[in-house]
Amino acid sequence: MFARLALKSLMDRKGSVLxxxxxxxxxxxxLLGVEHIRHQAKESFSNTVSGVDLIVGARTGSLNxxxxxxxxxxxxxxxxxxxxxxxxxxxxxxxxxIPISLGDSHKGYRVLGTTDDYFQYFSYGNKxxxxxxxxxxxxxxxxxxxxxxVAKQLNYQLGEKLVLAHGVAETSFSLHDDKPFEVVGILEPxxxxxxxxxxxxxxxxxxxxxxxxxxxxxxxxxVSIEELANVDLTPKSITAFMLGLNSRMATFRVQRDINNFxxxxxxxxxxxxxxxELWQMMGILENTLMLVSxxxxxxxxxxxxxxxxxxxxxxxxxxxxxRVIGAPPRFLFFLIQLEALVITICGVILGSTLLTGCLVLxxxxxxxxxxxxxxxxxxxxxxxxxxxxxxxxSIIVAMIPSFSGYRNARSTRE
Length: 414
Fold this sequence. Notes:
This protein is of the alpha+beta class. The protein folds into 2 domains: 2-45 and 280-413, no CATH class; 54-269, no CATH class. It has helices spanning 2-12, 14-46, 62-70, 82-89, 117-121, 148-154, 202-208, 251-259, 271-313, 316-324, 329-370, 381-397, 399-413; strands at residues 54-58, 80-81, 94-106, 109-114, 123-124, 128-129, 132-135, 143-146, 161-162, 165-166, 181-187, 197-201, 212-213, 216-217, 237-238, 240-245, 266-269. The strands form 4 sheets. Strands 1, 3, 4, 7, 8, 9, 10, 11, 12, 16 and 17 form an 11-stranded mixed sheet that branches. A two-stranded antiparallel ribbon has the order 2-15. The longest helix has 43 residues, at 271-313. The radius of gyration is 30 Å and the shape is elongated.
């Protein structure tokens, strides 16, 4: 009866209640959305690379090196000579080394040149290795292995031919169309930038650039696919490389040796430390977004409170009738509290539904544009605590109209 009375009272004022409900739903949508994407982004970035002790590149900022080598964001300041890579990787303290060569693309997706060691040693998440959904690693010069998202979005299958483009622009007119690659493998989804990457051999990168200089194809100097067998395709330079060491105890020693490398200026970073720097820089933005979201929610709560407070002036007959049939003042107090609770719960349901729908629609876009995998399961422990705090805050704010109704009920009886 109590709940039915609250629902009927709200329905009598459905116009103002609907506006308050929409404001509450939008505020909850923003608040839960910011919190969910913040946690998902941290989890996605943290799971991108695992088991790598050092990342080495040309001397630059540690964040820039981390972003372009791991997340395929940005560009390197310079390349590394191949001789420098072989010298560092031959260090007895180094267990494995994965070279990385960037700079080409295919329909907006990055191309990564590497070796077979990439598929053997690279890991993500909790040291999970890369696995093949179809096919195998590249073995020939013009073989390519696709990330799961590339194969899905471009609808590629094993055996298909594709042409790489020079540079990383989404639309490029500098195509390596004289040397098409054949799809020989498709990786299983990882939820990392690996899914948006095309993997080729370092020899493949050299092969498509053998008749190019300064980013321009040289006229009358074409090398055919058949002639590649007689050409030395040892790479002259790479973009960066990842190192796994025999002992974690040697990490800082190897890092210092690389940073003091005498052949060329190199920089070695610890991925975990660089990620911590990234989160420190993002902390201000996160806190600002949370503050704005909280203020939006507070504004919505105050709107609901104002609506309920204004409605008391229109409910003198209702209050008088309730007092006549013997309802105590606290009855009206809890009735208004229940009305605020109903609006908040409906706002949570509507806001959560809108957020889930938007995540479903934007999932592919976030993956393709930012390499960010955001799950649609929004009812995580942190968000459940946030929803509980939202309900608690709405009850507290509703105290204002509830006490006003309580006083009016007492004065009516008197």
